[in-house]
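User: I'll paste a sequence; please echo it back and then give the predicted structure.

Assistant: Echoing your sequence first, then the prediction.
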Amino acid sequence: MNIHRILAATDMSMCATHAETRAAMLCHALQVSEIALMTVIDFSLPGALERLLNNAQAFSEASLAEHAERDLQRIASRLQSEYNVVCNCSVEFGRPASRIASKADEISADLVVAGEHGCNSVSDAFLGNTPYKLLHVGRHPLLIVKNQPERAYESILVPVDFSDNSMLAAQTALAISPTASVTLLHGFEALHEGLMNYAGVSRDFIRGYRTEAKDNAMKEMDRFLSDLDKGGRPVASSVQFGYPPLVIQEHAETFKPDLIVIGKHGKSRLEDFLLGSVTRHTIEETYCDILVTLPPKASTLPSF
């Protein structure tokens, strides 16, 4: 896969600067000359500002849009100067997650980039939960930027469960950085091991059972690597026993990747809506940037 169209969502806060910069850095590294830069003004903001300031002054949509457009142009000038990327700016009104998802559909974005959260009560209304909501309503890969970018991604971790979603995540990891090292990680548990312990099954039998489970997981990893189009690049792999979310967290804490790329998982519509437990745990408990890939035909759920 290739990444040609990148959409960056911003609320113009200091925290959002990380997402703007990372999006521009990706464009520069991938030789993409343009970026779509957008902000969304919640339609309730004019009235909220009047109540907050206890002021009868009318905050019209036109005046708010004018200020936002001016701020976007300032950001665009910085990104063009520092990364030689042209920004196509847009200001929209509505529910942020829904408007960003619609914009991504409109431009057929290959990647959406957003900050982890805003830096104040106003920006929190925009970015506070927007990444999670985008994962519910969006249909495009979402890069959640947590840290101030200092360099191109050099080390990428891809947790895999050998599903189609995991294959998409691995392909995306290879596409987002042509030079980064990529490691596939699979955490596995021996099914019903806990029940065997309760039933008094011998430790030797349980050890053999766990060894067999690891052998099977390693064979699955070999097949997965064989099916992955690596483009001639070396791809490392690791199979670890343990509860998958903790395996991912511990691996990230030890090896400190710059980026984790993970598929959005969910075995049922409800679980998909709530995010798979592994994906949510990874987003919440790891320090690095997170890129979540979504199946191409992910169904759109209720608007936010």
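Residues 157 and 260 are 5 Å apart (CA to CA). Residues 203-227 form the longest helix (25 residues).
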